[in-house]
Amino acid sequence: MCGIVGYVGLPDQPNRSHFALDVILEGLRRLEYRGYDSAGVAVVDGDSIGFRKRAGKVAALDEVLAVQPLPDSLVGIGHTRWATHGGPTDANAHPHVVDGGKLAVVHNGIVENYSELRKTLVARGYEFASETDTEVAATLLADHFNTDAAGDLTKAMQLTCQQLEGAFTLLAIHASAPDRIVAARRNSPLVIGLGENENFLGSDVSGFIDHTKQAVEMGNDQIVTITATDYEIIDFSGNPAEGSPFTVTWDAAAAEKEGFDSFMDKEIHDQPAAVRDTLLGRLDDEGHLVLDELRIDESVLRQVDKIVIVACGTAAYAGHVARYAIEHWCRIPCEVELAHEFRYRDPIVNEKTLVVALSQSGETMDTVMAVQHAREQGAKVVAICNTNGSSIPRESDACIYTHAGPEIAVASTKAFLAQITAAYLLGLYLAQLRGNKFSDEIRQILEELAAMPEKIQEVIDNEEQVKALGTEMANASSVLFLGRHVGYPVALEGALKLKEIAYIHAEGFAAGELKHGPIALVEEGQPVFVIVPSPNGRNQLHSKVVSNIQEIRARGAITLVIAEEGDTAVDEHANHVIRVPKAPTLMQPLLATVPLQIFACALATAKGYDVDKPRNLAKSVTVE
Ligand code: F6R
Hints:
Elements lengths: L2 E7 L10 H11 L7 E8 L2 E8 L2 H10 L7 E7 L14 E3 L4 E9 L2 H10 L9 H14 L6 H11 L2 E9 L2 E10 L4 E4 L3 E5 L11 E4 L4 E5 L4 E5 L4 E2 L2 E4 L15 H7 L1 H9 L18 H6 L2 E6 L1 H18 L3 E5 H4 L10 E7 L5 H12 L3 E6 L5 H5 L2 E4 L12 H20 L5 H12 L1 H10 L1 H10 L5 E6 L3 H16 L2 E6 L16 E5 L7 H16 L3 E7 L11 E5 L8 H18 L18
Parallel strand pairs: 16-17, 16-18, 18-19, 19-20, 21-22, 21-23, 23-24, 24-25
Antiparallel strand pairs: 1-4, 1-10, 2-3, 2-4, 5-6, 6-7, 7-8, 8-12, 9-10, 9-11, 11-15, 12-13, 13-14
């Protein structure tokens, strides 16, 4: 969704290497992965604001700036917009400049009461140039600046925020307060970056990662005023507030493609490290599993009688995988609920319910709302999240961070594997705490998990076979995916990857469901992936899935079978066998998912699509 960058530098610095515009454009490019349809910048230019904005990509903005440059200013803000109110046009793009060209505002989120506010402002003689809620917020801010806030931009922001409903991040610069940016956040991301004689703001740290790794997380309903040398946080009532400083542990290179054709390709290859890093540092000296971040009283966790996993899309499929493990290890009933369905269902949730919110970005608004709802009902919430300083961990009682590094491609890959890994750690921790498993059993499972990165690497090392299949099937109009037990959510994830980046019909089914309907879809030449459970697991499942392969092959399907090494029972029924290393049943999703990601990436690439930025999708879905 929208990306935001702000920069304030100190004047008269010798050997200056950059001005506001350089930092902002660089930051906006790094934030492109969030998805957007227009871009704009504004800088303080003497006693007014200079700004440029365009529908389209940052490259279109660059073209405008080449023809109509902006001055070397030291204070500025920038924005990439994902249209909500008002289409993606130049006029609706941010910044919105009001107050006779002196005040510029960029905004992420939705001001829900904007139409009432607009009516009130129109009645008082204000005119509007766009259809956006942002211009309403900007006009309100200007109004306060010039009346009751008496030229104090921070005070004006405070008064404005008290009137706004909805979710928003706002950044404002004013030519009459030329040394600062004032920013506010409510249920929408904003992080402060601290440099030497310069400070930054970003929707996430990628917005300023080229300049500093020192960052400060802000709480909800807070306002920050940054100058080149200082920052000050207050809440919406004007009381002083504290941010939480943290150091970013990855560098700009981690957000680059590192020689891969696409971020998606790179991120598929990052997966052994993502799983390994997520497992790091989880054992104490006695070999017990420790989750330092799980700051929930042990007595509360012992009393949990139900677990509800809330998430969307790929993260929800990771939750489905985790459910099998958590129920098996902890013997606690575990449900998985799409976050956007959760609170509207009036779910039965109370103090004995543990809600687990899975999210790569930590900003998915549906999941944020589910977390808030769960906590209102008295449930404890543990987030499993990949993004430090994001909203979901902040809104939760505790967070287990996945250490997958930045995921730039819109289609989630490494976050999925890291989410499963972290959710498994949580399941094992609960099993340990509640005495469902002995220490040696836990250790054995942890060893199995620790062996997975190497096995994932083996799957990746075999990618050429799968890539060739993806390329060969570029003209397929539909691909089906079948799985059972933990292979079922893997099938769903394989189908989702193909839909979102290759734009072809793809569906995942529980293999047992085949005879209840989906088999009617199978005709001559229909490609069907089948994820075969290990013959060493619950054996009847293996033989049932092998029978499914026979059934669909007999009806003309092209069967693409993912089976473990040595499982020769599948050979005679498969058109193609994709081998994955042997692994315990619950670990298989960490392997079987990888060929499906590689297949989708290769097929979409063969069709000539940009796999990193699929149409109509945004990386971070910050509206409900
Ligand atoms: C699919 C995909 C989405 C996300 C979903 C949740 O490849 O990326 O389905 O998984 O939007 O996003 P997060 O994990 O950021 O909450």
